[in-house]
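Weekend entry, working from home. Most of the wet-lab plans are on hold until the incubator is repaired, so I used the time to fold the two sequences that have been sitting in the queue since the last round of cloning. Logging both here for the record. First:
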Amino acid sequence: MRFNLERPDLRKALAGTQQDIERAVTSGMRDAADGLKQDLRDEVVASGLGERLSRTWRGKVFPEVGESVEAAAFVWSKAPKLIDAFDRGVTIRSARGFWLAIPTLAAGARGRGPNGRASRITPGGWERRTGMRLRFVYRKHGPSLLVADTARLNSRGLAAANRRKSGHSTVILFLLVPRVMLRKRLNIDAIAKRQAARVPALIARHWPR
């Protein structure tokens, strides 16, 4: 029996191995990014912070096009300050005055800034949007209030000017408190470390058999 031994094309063989490595690493990092993003979204929902905040988590893998042995995953939130506050547990105080103004449902979700653009609802923005004035009501026990007199609730549950001659009422628009304490409700670091420990297995899963 005769065997003919031929030297393989080493460059071609190594090139194939390099491609396998790049493909496995990139695919594994893509799985890691997707897994971490989903774990963080689940954590936000489980903590009672809602689906809307959970959807602020985003993930991306670099390079965005092609494959690389140095592929990296990046996961971030589009609401970093809010996520950080619930991750650390913080005390929030007003940056401009003594009170923090917490809007009620009657105030709505959006206000109008000094430049006329829609913005997060504030007492000043609410007054600009509605043309109505707010009145301060001090309470020794419990939060103080900002209210609108001669107002009514419309069909959407929002405060509006009451132009009727009778049936006027006072609507509470903002609760005023000196501070808000947010307890720690997330553990981002533990989730990230747990997902990082899975990376070798995720890469190995994409290695050609």
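Second, folded right after the first finished:
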Amino acid sequence: MFLLSLPMYFVISFNNDLPAFPSISLGVQRALMITFFNGPTGLGGMRVAIQGERGSYSDEAARKFFQEGGYEPLSMRFLEEVFDSVESGEAEYGVIPVENSSTGSIRKSLDLLLERDVRVIGEVKVRVRHALLGVKGAKLDDIELVYSHPEAISQCEGFLKSRGWRVIPSFDTAGAAREVAEQGDRKRAAIASERVAELYDLEILAKDIQDLPHNTTRFFVITDEDEWPKDADTTSAFFATRHVPGALWRALGVFARRNINLLWLESRPIRREPWNYSFFVEFEGSLWEGYVNDALDELESESIWVKVLGTYKRTSVF
């Protein structure tokens, strides 16, 4: 069973060969995906859900993909709310972080991509250059409390460990900076982008404080419509194998036999199904290409189920 999308929540049993949701034929899914997506040009006024406020890295990713001034941001506090907004139609698109070059996958995003009824139609990479921001007139020696998103905090561990500051997680980087600006306390600082300093009239106390100089976060663009980019060169999917020896080896063999390069492979536990796992896979090639569809057809025969997230164009950092 080769699924383009799954219900809002589903139950998978690994004790038999029959999944707990109806089969959707590959032909039907291809028909569903026939809508073309020509990229961000001309998408002015599109409602795009992001986690965080203006100035967050999600906001920067959305501005980069949809072009400056070409979208209306809908700020959400939680990743779940980004998916809710897209599924309900409140937002036409959503932008979610999925991977960071220094800290790895954003597991919450992967889990939600498996569970929710959305499509991946694009990706964008953002160079992450963290700065320590304080109120005007503050100095490094004044700081006692630092606020930021947990991912940003983990990406700046080397810088933070050399100080005796108390570090407090926040919902997003830009929101943390806004709160510091509103509090007006020289003892408080936030980790965010330099652009946020301009938005909230903050002092840049230190630049490029991330542990790795080429720190980059990758974002997926999601929607609830079946859109198939004409220039797609990458496809991603989830699949689940049976608990038998060699099942994963046989599943991955469908790509090796066609010389398809795997870009990312990661196992994720299926929530509410203890000790059962699905596999997220991203590989080169688009659903426009026959050999990719042949690979997915064979993957279907080697798996309990397959969920195709989407096909899209990979981008460079710049």
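Plan for Monday: verify the second prediction. The chain has three domains: 1-10+21-34+231-318, 46-126+215-225, 130-214.
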